[in-house]
Structure formats: C-alpha cells, structure tokens
Amino acid sequence: MRTHHLLPWVILTMVALGLGVAGCNEEGLDTRNIVEVVSLNGNAPLNSDVWEWIDPKDPSKGGGIPKEFVEVIFNSRKHDDALIVNPGAPFGSVRFYEYDVEFIDTRHENGADLNNDGKVDLVNFTAPWNAVVPTGQTASGFLEIIGYDHKAVPPVSCLGPVGGSGCSFESAVQYAVSVNITFHGIEETSGDDIVLKRGIYVVMAELMDE
C-alpha cells in the first residue's frame, strides 16, 4: 500500500479537480450501439509514482521506475430499446484501436510545461491499442498515461532518485496536470467510427511505500 505525502488541503484540491474533468463526451451516438466510458481509473485522480523502492526501509537495495496501467471500463447498450440484441451476435461489437493523450496547458498546444520554464515536458501522444466491447456487454482495457519516458527525464525524474542534469534547480515535490483521453474505435459490423473522450487529473510524485 502506498501513501502519498501530500498535505490534506492538497489532496482535497486534487480530488475536486479530478472530479471536475471526469465528465465524458461521446460521439458516434447515431450508431446502432452506444458505447460509454463507465470508469477511468475508478473515476479517481491518478497518483503516478516516479520511483518504487525494493525495500523502502533499505534504500541500498535500490528500486526502479514503475510501469503504471490505468483501467478503463466500457459499457455497450443498444441504440433502440425495441431492438433484440443477443450478446456475441454479429450486430455491432466495438473495437477500440488507439487512444490519444492530451496534457492540458493553455500556453502550449502540444503538451504541458510542468516547471514553467517555457519548454513542454509532457508531449501529447497517440498510442495503438486493442480493446473489444461485445454487443450489449461491459469490457475493460488497460492503458498507459505517464510512461517510463516521462519519468526518466527532468523535470519529472527530479522528483525521485533518478535526478538528471538541471535537477539542482528544481525544488518541486510533485507535478500535476489535467489530461484528456480520446478513444478511437469502430463498430465492426457497420464500420461506423466511435470516438469517446474522458478526462482525468494526474499527480506525479515519489510515493511512500509501506
């Protein structure tokens, strides 16, 4: 179990902001299936750990940069209640094939500047994916938002023991950013495009392992 060493007011602010961006905007609602994002990371903000110790009580044993996968849960329902749709039948299962990650920063279009030095630290990206939502059912998949490449270089790496060139000028103990996730899919029978959007609030820090 990990405990984030944040002050209580910081945690409350994080939760409030996380809930503020948790709404979803579905497109493709004219398709025969309506697919919705039921949950992204349990509908909670994401605490992203920049370093994980093998033994928190003995740093000499070292550690590493952890990989973090966030669960997303989809639900499929028929567009018209009068339709009879049998699960698994060739009516319109939805396959999501990629997702976009947009780090929100009003000063930059291509990502977020975490330490306000004028440079984008988290660059927006698109990643291939594969998640299938059967007709009239619920399905889940796992995706990565803050990856190894983000955690291994400054300024994020400065939050943990990895450090790096220029970290002596960094005093932050955490960074936070709002993120928009866009899921791109296709209704396999009709070929209709489906695009779903969901927001999440992310805090990056070295979390305390217990």
How many helices in DSSP terms?
2
Kindly state the percentage of residues in helix: under 10%
Task: Characterize the biggest β-sheet.
Answer: 6 strands, mixed
Strand segment tally:
15
Radius of gyration: 20 Å
Which geometry do the CA atoms define? Answer: elongated
The computed structural class is mainly beta
H and E string: EHEEEEEEEEEEEHEEE
Q: Please give the domain count.
A: 1
Distance between the termini: 6 Å
Mean pLDDT: 81
| Portion in beta strands | 35-45%
Write a structural description.
By secondary structure, the chain is mostly beta strands. It has one domain (2-209). The protein is 8% helix and 42% strand. The protein has 2 helices and 15 strands. The strands form 5 sheets. Strands 2, 4, 8, 11, 13 and 14 form a 6-stranded mixed beta sheet that branches. A 3-stranded antiparallel beta sheet has the order 3-7-12, with no helix packed on it. Strand 13 and strand 14 form a beta hairpin.
Ordered list of secondary-structure elements with their pairings:
Layout: E1 2-3, H1 8-20, E2 24-26, E3 33-40, E4 46-49, E5 52-53, E6 63-64, E7 70-78, E8 94-103, E9 111-112, E10 122-123, E11 125-133, E12 138-143, H2 148-151, E13 174-187, E14 193-205, E15 208-209
Parallel strand pairs: 4-14
Antiparallel strand pairs: 1-15, 2-14, 3-7, 5-6, 7-12, 8-11, 8-13, 9-10, 13-14
